[in-house]
UniProtKB/TrEMBL annotation, chain A:
This is dolichyl-diphosphooligosaccharide--protein glycotransferase. It comes from Wallemia ichthyophaga. The keyword Manganese applies. Pathway: Protein modification; protein glycosylation. InterPro entries: Oligo_trans_STT3, STT3_N. Belongs to the STT3 family. Residues 442-455 have a biased composition (Basic and acidic residues).
UniProtKB/TrEMBL annotation, chain B:
It is a single-pass type I membrane protein. InterPro entries: Ribophorin_I. Component of the oligosaccharyltransferase (OST) complex. The keyword Transferase applies. One of its GO terms (molecular function) is transferase activity. Pfam families: Ribophorin_I. This is Dolichyl-diphosphooligosaccharide--protein glycosyltransferase subunit 1. GO terms for biological process: protein N-linked glycosylation via asparagine. Subunit of the oligosaccharyl transferase (OST) complex that catalyzes the initial transfer of a defined glycan (Glc(3)Man(9)GlcNAc(2) in eukaryotes) from the lipid carrier dolichol-pyrophosphate to an asparagine residue within an Asn-X-Ser/Thr consensus motif in nascent polypeptide chains, the first step in protein N-glycosylation. N-glycosylation occurs cotranslationally and the complex associates with the Sec61 complex at the channel-forming translocon complex that mediates protein translocation across the endoplasmic reticulum (ER). All subunits are required for a maximal enzyme activity. It comes from the Eukaryota. The chain crosses the membrane at residues 434-451. Belongs to the OST1 family. It comes from Wallemia ichthyophaga (strain EXF-994 / CBS 113033).
Length: 759, 458
């Protein structure tokens, strides 16, 4: 009795310690994401978050119904966009819900602040979920390590700093939560937890297009388990409850609709669902058939027939077009060159490029070399009858996550959680061996095994599965042999070898140093690489003062305050969301890139000579054109550097009118200076960017700092456009489209006439 | 006085006989012009007052532009009460407005000072300017006389322009009695002017502006008082417009940068706006719809100076006709703003506005949000305003906060004076918030404790 009481207080102490550790981890996760708020302000970052923020404001200001049916006629002018049905509403609904709850208890927090701080808040939840997940794979010690890793690892922070109000902000939490629930429901074999998994999956579907990863990972896991001969009723129950409820639920999201039953991306899940039915059916038959041979024949014929019928049905459905084929974006995952040829819009985005080697180290630091070790230890744990299933999951996830992360920089994000889990497993196994007293550890292991066997026994008893009992015995034998061997080795090593006190000290100091360096590296990367809002640029003057370059907001605010409310602003699609969010003006194209032709139209406007562009501009009611020019400041992400993509995209739609070749000099150079190709010099973009730029330098030669070139003394002449606004550092230039001449002259004639009249 | 015209006979005015005895010995009206506002002081040397009131006429033009008005005795500086007479019996020629000033008893001879502030007294010329035009002019028109219902022995009208670059300053018909010295003009003296004599002649002054003509289209202040935080937090939401000649053609950054470099910026551009905040203001911010404006400067006043200076630089230079909307905010310690009286009431002084000099405000609203549960006893404002009461619900409120809403059409820096509110706050109301939070927290813990003890397992 006394012992159990002591044990009890010990347990309470442990759980209290765990609680405080988790709270500290949550604090670290949140505070390390606040660099940008402290350094700049509470502001929405980058491009997509501005759309999400605008949508959230629509939800909060006009109510759910309006949001759900929201038709946005200020974007994709004149087409408009049925926004309510073409977005993943999970993110907006989450922050809208938080906003409404806070307001109902009279905490009038501004919606902007909720949106800015949503990602850090959810990162704390992600850390906790990763703890739970790793606990399912190994134990609480590894769980805490994994939680620490995920809390501060740059690979995840890159997408979840304060202000980065994007789908990924909550999606990574949901991803890990769904996986945790899946592993847990699989361990318990419970339909209840399977249904909870499905609900979490539903939330994920409503939040991020990356849900496809879940709906392929879980079936794959189930399939691999079947192949490994680890089929169990637990698998059947949890998978079937997850798949049926999850699929039905996911179809409630308007943007997803009938995709879960109609596209190839989701067919693996359906196939595994069918397979599990066949296996379950055959197991049932076996119990009722007397002889083994009869059963085998039946099994084989049914399985083969089922497989053939299933594959044939799917092939037919694909052929007939009932099942939509794989989307182009999906192909680009398998063939890295695919996007460049067939969907230049996808390829033009920098985050869709293949990952470079240093960025793995940059984003994951020491975790990247602990990661394989962790996967190795997971192979070790496969023999564990229950937790082995979670290990299988980790291994599959690790393999696929690594592949996807190496194909696209952006998918580094999905790899990061599993790297943290695997690294935590590796490090905690190391620490287990070097910190814990071997005796205590042995006891613990025995305890563990006992409980495991108990549950296993219960399950096998309940379902009376004889086939699995012999295997069990085998593993028992294996473990008893290995444990006696371990004991012998341990005794030998007590005095010298790897368990000697000095050896332990060396390893532990190493681990502690590694962890400390990891913290330093993560903080450094977060602070330097991932905490810039990209709306405001900060630089240091030679005196050490911070200089803010706020040209984007200057120009957007100018548009908002001085142009008429029905102005239509044309710009390359990158700035569409920001224009709508900050300037509140109608845009032609934006980051939603759903209509390639429309984007190509804007590309054509930019790439064509003025006479051609002017007609298109008039036809689209464009009043203003916006270009970004970094030549004065040395800002390399400007429109000239994106120009080739504009040309390529519009060439894809108008191959007769736009030719990429024309924009290069005969010698194949892409030049902006005196020797630029005629098509280049006549293009509207070139004219808008360099309009009167040379005059800024007076008598000195004009230099474009991004491309390090000297510009011709006489700049390009604009005829149908006039400069309306240029920001302080010439970063953003806005041009007004002239009305047609009132006498019906061409602009060239009109300008010539004016000039003559003035002399 | 050839060019003076007695407009109407005596029959029009009911009370003319009663006023007959009052005589103005001397009237001097001096008007100081700015770009968006003007301050005018009229001194009346009056004798022979018998019934204790003195009537002042305000021209319809001035009445439309009027933002602030006060009448005082010159000797003592004492403010005198007045009423507007709007009844049918006071129909005035040319729609003049009539003001009846209550004089102190038994003072047959006295000197009255009428000071008025005007918004947008002058019109810009020309109406459009390109970015290359460096200067613009303002035109100010006024009567040559001070119109009064009494006989006047001698009167003068003085006008002072902000610059000495005056293009035109004479009267329309006769310039013989006009003197000009630098930027100051004097018209008169006019001797023996009959009651209600309205001259047909006008003064027109065309002067070159030295700066932009700015206007606040919207100016809304909220001042939230917190006893627990010991602060008053202010927030001003403002839409400022450059009300000068509007920009002709387009804005060119190149020209603007060249002009800035050579220090020859046109007078019609506003690049900076200085707002005076109380000294020791803290937590100052300057934001607009899309966040922090990184171009502002703040000069913190210390204990010695009476104010801090917030220099606001809009994101883009304000060309003619352009507008810019923004918000500024700051906090002041309650120590300087509120005093606890013996009877337990709190006497709170809040500046009505912080309008910079020479900015005309179309309509200003000040919302004073008192602590939750505070009861308002009295509100004192040193000028005419509309007073309304409402309830604001804010952080963790249970019953909402009593709010005094003061609003006024046409204001300027003449209205930067303090509003005084006397209110009381009971101990229970002061403790309401912590009690409410504690009660909810306790209820949550109890619920959690109960739920943990219920076995939900089936």
């Amino acid at each position: 009795m006394a012992g159990s009481a002591a044990n009890n207080t010990n347990n309470t102490l442990k759980s209290l310690l765990k609680l405080f550790t988790l709270l500290a981890i949550a604090g670290a996760a949140i505070s390390s994401r606040l660099f940008s708020v402290i350094r700049h302000e509470s502001i929405i970052h980058e491009f997509d978050p501005w759309f999400n923020f605008r949508a959230t404001k629509v939800l909060v200001n006009h109510g759910f119904k309006h949001f759900w049916n929201w038709y946005d006629n200020t974007s994709w002018y004149p087409l408009g966009r049925a926004t309510g049905g073409t977005l993943y509403p999970g993110l907006m609904l989450t922050s809208g819900l938080i906003h409404n709850i806070l307001h109902s208890i009279n905490i009038p927090l501004d919606i902007r602040n909720i949106c800015v701080l949503l990602a850090p808040a959810f990162s704390a939840l992600t850390a906790y979920t990763t703890y739970l997940f790793t606990k399912e794979v190994k134990d609480a010690r590894a769980g805490l390590l994994a939680a620490i890793f995920i809390a501060i690892v740059p690979g995840y922070i890159s997408r979840s700093v304060a202000g980065s109000y994007d789908n990924e902000a909550i999606a990574i939490f949901l991803l890990m939560f769904t996986f945790y629930l899946w592993v847990k429901s699989l361990r318990l074999g419970s339909a209840f937890w399977g249904a909870i998994t499905a609900m979490s999956y539903y939330y994920m579907v409503s939040a991020w297009g990356g849900y496809a990863f879940i709906i392929n990972m879980i079936p794959l896991h189930a399939f691999v388990l079947v192949l490994m001969g680890r089929y169990s009723p637990r698998l059947y129950i949890s998978y079937c409850s997850f798949y049926t409820i999850g699929t039905l639920a996911s179809m409630q999201v308007p943007f997803v609709g009938f995709n879960p039953v109609g596209t190839a991306d989701h067919m693996a899940a359906l196939g595994v669902f069918g397979l599990l039915q066949l296996i379950a059916f055959s197991t049932l038959i076996r119990q009722h058939l007397p002889s083994k041979q009869q059963f085998d024949t039946l099994l084989r014929s049914v399985l083969v027939l089922g497989f053939v019928v299933g594959v044939a049905a799917m092939a037919l459905a694909s052929h007939k077009g009932v099942i939509a084929p794989w989307t182009g974006r999906f192909y680009s995952l398998w063939d890295t060159g695919y996007a460049k040829v067939h969907i230049p819009i996808v390829a033009s985005v920098s985050e869709h490029q293949p990952t470079s080697w240093p960025s793995f180290f940059f984003d994951l630091q020491m975790l990247i070399y602990l990661f394989p070790a962790g996967v190795f230890f997971c192979f070790h744990r496969l023999s564990d009858s229950i937790k082995g299933e979670a290990s299988v999951f980790v291994i599959i996830y690790a393999v696929f996550g690594s592949y996807f992360a190496s194909v696209m920089v952006r998918l580094m994000l999905t790899l990061t959680p599993i790297v943290c889990v695997a690294a935590a497993v590796a490090l905690s196994t190391l620490l287990d061996n070097y910190i814990q007293d071997p005796d205590v550890e042995g006891e613990h292991q025995v305890e563990n095994k006992e409980t495991d066997h108990n549950t296993q026994h219960n399950v096998s008893h309940n379902t009376s599965q004889k086939a699995f009992t012999p295997k069990n015995k085998k593993t028992k034998k294996d473990t008893s042999i290995s444990s006696t061997r371990e004991k012998v080795i341990e005794k030998m090593q007590e005095k010298a070898g790897i368990r000697a006190p000095d050896a332990r000290l060396v390893v532990l100091i190493n681990v502690v140093l590694m962890l400390i360096f990891f913290v330093f590296h993560s903080t450094w990367v977060t602070s330097n690489a991932y905490s810039s809002p990209s709306v405001v640029l900060a630089s240091k003057t030679p005196q050490g003062e911070t200089l803010y370059i706020d040209d984007f907001r200057e120009a957007y605010n100018w548009l908002n305050q001085t142009t008429s409310e029905d102005a239509v602003v044309g710009s390359w699609w990158d700035y569409g969301y920001q224009l709508a969010g900050m300037a509140g003006r109608t845009t032609l194209v934006d980051n939603n890139t759903w209509n390639n032709t429309h984007i190509a139209t804007v590309g054509k406007i930019m790439a064509s000579p003025e006479e051609v562009s002017y007609d298109i501009l008039r036809k689209h009611d464009v009043t203003h054109l916006l270009v970004v020019f970094g030549g004065l400041l040395g800002y390399s992400g400007d429109d000239i550097n994106k120009f080739l993509w504009m040309v390529r995209i519009s060439e894809g739609v108008w191959p007769d009118e736009i030719h990429e070749r024309d924009y290069f000099t005969p010698r194949g150079e892409f030049r902006m200076d005196e020797g630029a190709a005629p098509a280049m010099k006549n293009s509207v973009l070139y004219k808008m960017v360099y309009h009167r730029f040379a005059e800024l330098f007076g008598s000195r030669p004009a230099v474009d700092r991004v491309r390090q070139i000297q510009l011709p003394k006489k700049g390009p002449q604009l005829e149908s456009l006039e400069e309306a606004f240029t920001s302080e550092n010439w970063l953003v230039r806005i041009y007004q489209v002239k009305q047609p001449d009132f006498l019906g002259r061409s602009f060239k004639d009109a300008i010539a006439f004016e000039k003559a009249a003035r002399i | 006085m050839n060019n003076l015209l007695s407009v109407l006979g005596l029959i029009l005015f009911v009370n003319i006989s009663a006023l007959a005895a009052t005589v103005n010995d001397n009237i001097v009206k001096s008007t100081k012009l700015f770009h968006s506002t003007a301050h005018s002081t009229t001194t009346y040397h009056v004798s022979g007052v018998d019934d204790g009131t003195y009537d002042i006429l305000i021209s319809p033009n001035e009445f439309d532009q009027l933002s602030h008005l006060s009448v005082s005795l010159k000797e003592s500086g004492e403010q005198l009460p007045y009423t507007w007479l709007n009844g049918d019996s006071y129909v005035q020629p040319y729609n003049f407005k009539r003001l009846a000033v209550q004089l102190p008893p038994n003072t047959p001879q006295l000197t009255l000072v009428l000071s008025i502030s005007l918004n947008n007294p002058s019109t810009p010329l020309p109406s459009q300017l390109t970015q290359d035009d460096l200067a613009y002019s303002l035109s100010f028109k006024t009567y040559t006389h001070v119109v009064t219902p009494y006989h006047t022995n001698e009167m003068r009208v003085k006008v002072r322009a902000p610059t000495s670059k005056i293009h035109r300053y004479g009267m329309t018909h006769d310039d013989s009695k006009t003197t000009k010295n630098g930027g100051s003009m004097v018209y008169g003296p006019w001797m023996d002017v009959a009651p209600y004599s309205i001259p047909t002649d006008h003064i027109e002054i065309l002067y070159e502006a030295a700066g932009p003509r700015l206007k606040y289209e919207v100016s809304e202040r909220s001042a939230q008082v917190s006893h627990w935080g010991n602060v008053v937090s202010f927030r001003d939401d403002i839409v400022v417009r450059n009300n000068g000649p509007s920009l002709k053609g387009q804005f060119t950054r190149l020209t603007h940068q060249a002009q800035t470099f050579l220090n020859v910026l046109p007078t019609n551009i506003a690049t900076m706006l200085s707002v005076r905040l109380p000294a020791l203001s803290e937590e100052v911010f300057f934001v607009d719809q899309i966040g922090n404006v990184t171009t502002s400067h703040y000069k913190q006043g210390d204990g010695h100076s009476s104010h801090s200076l917030l220099q606001l630089k809009p994101r883009y230079p304000l060309m003619g006709g352009w507008k810019y909307s923004f918000s500024i905010g700051w906090e002041n310690s309650l120590r300087f703003a509120a005093k606890l009286a013996r009877d337990g009431t709190t006497r709170l002084s809040i500046p009505f506005s912080s309008t910079p000099e020479d900015v005309a405000v179309d309509r200003h609203t000040t919302r004073i949000i008192l602590p939750e549960g505070a009861q308002v006893h009295s509100v004192y404002v040193p000028f005419e305003v509309d007073v309304q009461y409402e309830t604001t619900t804010s952080y963790l409120d249970t019953i909402g906060r009593n709010t005094v809403v003061l609003s006024k059409h046409n204001t300027s820096d003449a209205h930067n004076g303090d509003v005084t509110i006397v209110y009381s706050l009971s101990l229970f109301n002061a403790l309401r918030k912590p009690l409410a939070v504690a009660a909810v927290a306790f209820a949550l813990f109890s619920a959690a404790t109960l739920l943990r003890r219920i076995n939900t397992r089936i």
